[in-house]
């Protein structure tokens, strides 16, 4: 029997260690090559770990490009060009 699992590490912890995960939103790159999806992991207490996962549509590869512990679920994503996305004011080169 083969069991498959998608497990991502955030702050040195497995994504399975968090209580719950929710997708917040997504956006497509101007050339439609990438999808950026934002997620929220609920931490103990009143904070959240927010991260953005980038998917390359051609290869199917995924990678986390942003993560931040914050008190709210405000994730603002805006593509500046085909290769640069701005997330909560931080520019990230793809």
SSE layout and pairing:
Blueprint: E1 9-10, E2 13-14, E3 21-28, E4 34-42, E5 48-56, E6 62-70, E7 77-81, E8 84-87, E9 90-93
Strand order of the largest sheet: 3-4-5-6
Q: Proportion of β residues? A: over 45%
- Report the span from N to C terminus: 37 Å
SS-based class: mainly beta
The general outline is: globular
Number of strands: 9
Number of domains in the coordinates?
1
The gyration radius over C-alpha positions equals 14 Å
Mean model confidence by pLDDT: 83
Poorly predicted tracts of residues: 1-11
Topology pattern, helix = H, strand = E = EEEEEEEEE
Number of helices: 0
How would you characterize the largest beta sheet? 4 strands, antiparallel
In helices, the fraction of residues equals under 10%
Structural overview:
- The protein is mostly beta strands.
- The chain has one domain (14-93).
- It is 0% helix and 55% strand.
- It contains no helices and nine strands.
- It has strands spanning 9-10, 13-14, 21-28, 34-42, 48-56, 62-70, 77-81, 84-87, 90-93.
- The strands form three sheets. A four-stranded antiparallel β-sheet has the order 3-4-5-6, with no helix packed on it.
- Strand 1 and strand 2 (13-14) form a beta hairpin.
- The termini are far apart.
